[in-house]
Structures are given as C-alpha cells and as structure tokens.
Amino acid sequence: MSQLFVRTGIHFSSSQQALEHIGAEMLARGGVHDSYPAALLEREATFPTGIALEKHAVAIPHCEAIHAKSPAIYLI
C-alpha cells in the first residue's frame, strides 16, 4: 500500500533545510528506516534532482528503496 502525504504553506531558506524537513517528517510518520534522512541528504549531494523553473523550483529527492519501509510520496 502506498501513502501520499501533502503539506502546503511552508517555506524553506535552502534546499538543505527542505531535505532535512523531508527526512524528519518521513521518519516521524514511520514510513522509513532510521537510515533514510542521511541517505536522502547523501543522494541529493551526489546527484541533485532540483530544477529551477521560472517561478518555482521542482525536485524529486529520493534514495535507495532499502531505506523505506513502504512506498510513499511526500508532496510539498
């Protein structure tokens, strides 16, 4: 079973802050292993997924599936 989490109205001063938020939120929701936040940061540092568009930035940060307990998407 996949889960979808949606959060609006929050702002971050950096991509690092956004990634730390995602790691903490997914960990708090119980859908990932303790290794997830660090793996997410490491993967994005090595292969960034961010794309700067005209008015927004879009990214699909992720890491290896071994860090997840179940499929989930966190949309911000």
Summarize the structure.
With 76 residues, this protein is α+β, with helices and mostly antiparallel strands.
Shape: globular
* Helicity, as a percent range: 25-40%
Instruction: Decide which structural class fits the backbone.
Output: alpha+beta
Specify the number of helices.
Answer: 2
Adjacency order of strands in the biggest sheet: 1-4
Cα radius of gyration in angstroms: 12 Å
The span between the termini is 21 Å
- Mean pLDDT equals 94
What can be said about the biggest beta sheet?
Answer: 2 strands, parallel
One letter per element, helices H and strands E, the order comes to EHHEEE
Kindly state the number of beta strands. Answer: 4
Low-confidence stretches: none
Taken as a percent bin, the fraction of beta residues is 15-25%
Plain-language structure description:
The protein is of the alpha+beta class. The protein is 33% helix and 16% strand. The protein has 2 helices and 4 strands, in the order βααβββ. The chain has helices spanning 15-28, 36-46, and strands at residues 3-6, 51-52, 57-58, 72-75. Strands 1-4 form a two-stranded parallel ribbon. It has a two-stranded antiparallel sheet with strand order 2-3. The radius of gyration is 12 Å and the shape is globular.
